[in-house]
Design a protein that fits this description.
The protein is of the alpha+beta class and 192 residues long. 35% of the residues lie in helices and 33% in strands. Strands 2, 4, 7, 8, 9, 10 and 12 form a seven-stranded antiparallel beta sheet that branches. Strand 5 and strand 6 form a beta hairpin. The chain is elongated, with a radius of gyration of 30 Å. About 4% of the residues have low confidence.
Length: 192
């Protein structure tokens, strides 16, 4: 083999090596934050666990100064936990998890933490409605009919307070389109 052929083979091998190195996977380490803007609205009132949600990556995800997932990359999320608001004591909750991202036409599965919200407990507020209704009923019943009237009024007032708590108590978790949610990777992810 002459030296010109060897040099040509060497250059070909060198170019192939550089191409392979530039295509090498970059690993996004566990604990990396990824912020996603959801492209559709979703509510705890009618969402279901496992339901898909689409979004886009809100900020470049970088590793060692290199952009691994660019801003605007397509993202798929899934409802990981949902509960509609109950009338008296069940608070609404809605949590999503990032499932995958698409980078340069290739889809990569990602394991992340969940992100979402649980509405505050309503127990104290509902107890206030019910207790306040019972107290007001007892006062009115006592004035109108003495001791026996107070007992009847307390029961009637508690019933009215319970109805009031039930009528005003449904507060759902709602994420309108363009809501940003942040997720944290739970395992390393290799992106080519």
């Amino acid at each position: 083999m002459n030296s010109r052929t060897r040099f040509s083979l060497f250059l070909t091998a060198l170019c192939f090596s550089f191409a392979t190195l530039s295509q090498a996977a970059t690993s996004i380490p566990a604990g990396t934050a990824i912020t996603v803007t959801i492209d559709q609205s979703i509510s705890s009132k009618n969402a279901q666990a496992g339901q898909g949600v689409v979004g886009t990556v809100a900020h470049d995800v970088t590793v060692d100064g290199k952009v691994v997932i660019p801003k605007g990359a397509h993202a798929k999320l899934v409802v990981s936990s949902v509960q509609a608001s109950g009338r008296l004591s069940t608070p609404a909750k809605l949590y999503l998890r990032l499932k995958s991202v698409e980078v340069r036409g290739k889809t990569y599965a990602i394991a992340t933490s969940s992100s979402g919200k649980t509405m505050g407990g309503k127990g104290k507020r509902d107890a206030g409605f019910i207790g306040g209704g019972a107290g007001a009923g007892a006062l009115i019943g006592g004035l109108a009919g003495g001791g026996k009237g107070a007992a009847i009024g307390a029961v009637a007032g508690a019933g009215a307070g319970t109805a009031g708590a039930a009528a005003t108590g449904k507060k759902e978790v709602e994420f309108p389109a363009e809501t940003r949610l942040s997720f944290t990777t739970r395992a390393d992810v290799a992106i080519n």
